[in-house]
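Checklist before submission:
- one chain only
- standard amino acids only
- sequence pasted in full

Submission:
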Amino acid sequence: MLSDGQTSAVKVAARGQDNMLPHINKILVIRVDGIGDLLNSTPAIALLRGNYPSAEITVLARPLNAPVLIGNPDVDRILIFDRKDKHHGIAAQLRFYHELRREGFQLVVAMQTAMWSHLVAFLSGAPYRLGRYQKRFRSTLTHAWRGQYRKGETHEVDRNLELVRLICQGESRRKLVYHMSADEIATAKAQQTSWGIGDDAFLIGIHPGGSSFDKRWPEKQYADLADRLAQQYNATILLLRGPEEAELVQNIQEAMQSHAITYAPKTIRELGALLSCCDLVVCNDSGPMHLAAALDVPMVAIFGPTDHVAWYPLSENASIVRRDMPCWPCSAHKCKIGWECTKKLPVDPVWDATTEKVK
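Returned file contents:
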């Protein structure tokens, strides 16, 4: 198992040219799940680019995660699959599959292990279809990774790299790929100025949200931590939230004794730019955590029942805090003891990790 934060190149054993596919001009990578899932696929996409430099690489994403690919030099096109709107219903999906087939992809990489990904790879008509030999329609794959991963052993980046090595060779860096423009950074800095945050402020961004309840550290603990940071370090606290987390952030602000600035970024790109301007970020295991990792922002990430070995933020500037439990590894969404790993994690270990980052 590779160590936390390692960013050196992963060396691939020489296998000659046997695993390289011939005449590949168009590649489709399927990743229609989360922000972190897509970001942790970017090193594997970079390896594909290095091995098939003349091929057009298209990523099939969804509206939530697609913006993280803007400016990525390894991606030529982004296709959006919007199950809730444009592609809602059987007729719309059938049109989508027909249009996808007309694209003429020679290789489809089902980076996301799911029945739907395997089905799309097959319906695309691509002569080469790569994926993991799990879930339904796996028999339609022409190249399949047939191993098994146990919890607590392998990072998601390494899983994705191991998959594409079936058809690639050479080296790839274990580094998330995420690019921001100078204009985006300048806009974020101007936003901070409008809030009265000067260049000399010690800015700590707190993002207390998460994709599910079990991943969210309690509001009272966040409020306590924010107060300590404001009082001990005279820090400016920026509470960031997603579109459905207004009540969550409001509860934290009301429980605080100190002042905090609250803001809901309108886009993932705006969120990334604001995170990049922070001196420190504290967050749960979430998409914003992986954004901060890709930007190498100093960070403390709070983990609950998630496999922290597979999903820790891949950055030398990141630390994680978790409460070890005898029931881990677990099935997080079916917890019988009320997610004590997250909900009963005290403030002190998070405070200690945060003060280490400040130092």
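Reviewer check: The mean pLDDT is 92.
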